[in-house]
TrEMBL record:
Protein name: DUF47 family protein
Gene3D superfamilies: Phosphate transport system protein phou homolog 2, domain 2
Family membership: Belongs to the UPF0111 family.
InterPro entries: PhoU-like_sf, Put_Phosphate_transp_reg, UPF0111_domain
Organism encoding this protein: Chryseobacterium suipulveris
Domain of life: Bacteria
Amino acid sequence: MGIGNIFKAFQPKDKVFFVLFEKVAQSLTAMSKEFHEGLLDFDMNDDTMLKNMSDYEHKLDDLTHEIFVQLGENFITPFDREDINYLASGMDDIADYLYASAKYIYLYKTPLDPAYTEFSLLIHKSCVELENAISNMKDFKNPKAVKESCIKINSYENIADDVLSQATVKLFETGDAINIIKVKSVLEYLEIVTDKAEDVANTIENIVIKYA
């Protein structure tokens, strides 16, 4: 390897990682938007939305894999390797649980609970703020905007906790044991998505605290 290539190998790859993280964030926003809109106009006999959720999940798996490939190939990174790992894994978890939520909605074949769309809107809003936070992390020049997005995500997760509690109470009032089991499972998957978004927001905040 020539001296020029050696020097290049030790140069930071900020652009590579930030481009990949932005792609992940943009994909999550698009995925959550389609999920929310799909629930607003839901047809159990049309599995287009489920197939699209699966496509998004596979796309995000590929992007996450590419981040880990870059992590293995580059000596210098824009922030700690451990934080890159946490951030990539956390964002991938959002996609995984969002797809799982969609899958069980179709598999259980139960009438949609009104709370589903409340959750899907909170999930979409969280993903929009994640995209904003990732965008504002570049060069750590706008930590205030990043923090504001993270605060919003935390508030959405708090609202989601209340949505789960209220929906569960109403669900048990129906007395339909089989339906309760199915719907409660979906509600819990949806709430986990907001938990995962909050986890990512906390990771982003920690990164900004270290480097801004």
